[in-house]
Design a protein that fits this description.
By secondary structure, the protein is mainly β. It has helices spanning 15-29, 48-51; strands at 59-61, 65-70, 81-89, 94-95, 102-106, 111-113, 117-118, 122-124, 128-137, 141-154, 159-172. Strands 1, 2, 3, 6, 8 and 9 form a 6-stranded antiparallel beta sheet that branches. Strand 8 and strand 9 (128-137) form a beta hairpin.
Length: 173
């Protein structure tokens, strides 16, 4: 048992352990940004979740970034095609170059994926990330491509790390 960690007058010896865990969690949140990107004092930024539409769609547009999934085709049944996920930073925000961007596709009726696609499957610069997502349609007609994009954008004051659900319909011959 750890002794001497309870605050003076506290009846709970685990109080400092809980407080220490909270402080460690706060420190972890800033780890995705370098020192110039870490927040000195929290500032109220627009909340991306509030700006995001309820349910998945081909695009999420909020004050700090836009993320979209495109499937322009043409696509043929049984032949590999490529969709594209794009993240564009807005305003004072830029792409967090240290973050492991990843699109994790969701298997669906009429389509198979090779698996998650990370930054090695695309291009990353200061304002934009583009990931190429290979897939194979297993039937003709319309097939739904869907998945979750993990992303991060930063300002000089804070970094946002978010996951957005995206889906788009691809037309297959």
């Amino acid at each position: 048992m750890v002794r001497g960690l309870a605050m003076k007058g506290s009846k709970s010896p685990g109080f400092c352990l809980v407080a220490g865990g909270v402080l460690a969690g706060v420190a972890w949140l800033g780890a995705g940004c370098n020192q110039s990107e870490a927040a000195q004092a929290p500032e109220k930024a627009p909340v991306a979740a509030a700006a995001a539409a309820v349910g998945a769609g081909p695009k999420v547009d909020n004050p700090n970034y836009t993320v979209s999934l495109r499937a322009d085709g043409p696509y043929q049944q049984g032949q590999e095609g490529t969709a594209e996920v794009t993240v564009e930073a807005k305003g004072e925000y830029h792409i967090n170059n240290e973050y492991p961007f990843r699109f994790t596709p969701k298997e669906g009726d009429g389509v198979t994926f090779k698996g998650p696609v990370g930054r090695e499957g695309g291009t990353v610069d200061k304002a934009k990330v583009v990931l190429k997502v290979p897939f194979t349609p297993t039937r003709g007609g319309e097939v739904k491509l869907a998945g979750k994009m993990s992303l991060s954008v930063c300002s000089d004051k804070q970094c946002l790390m978010e996951k957005q659900d995206l889906e788009v319909v691809a037309k297959v011959k």
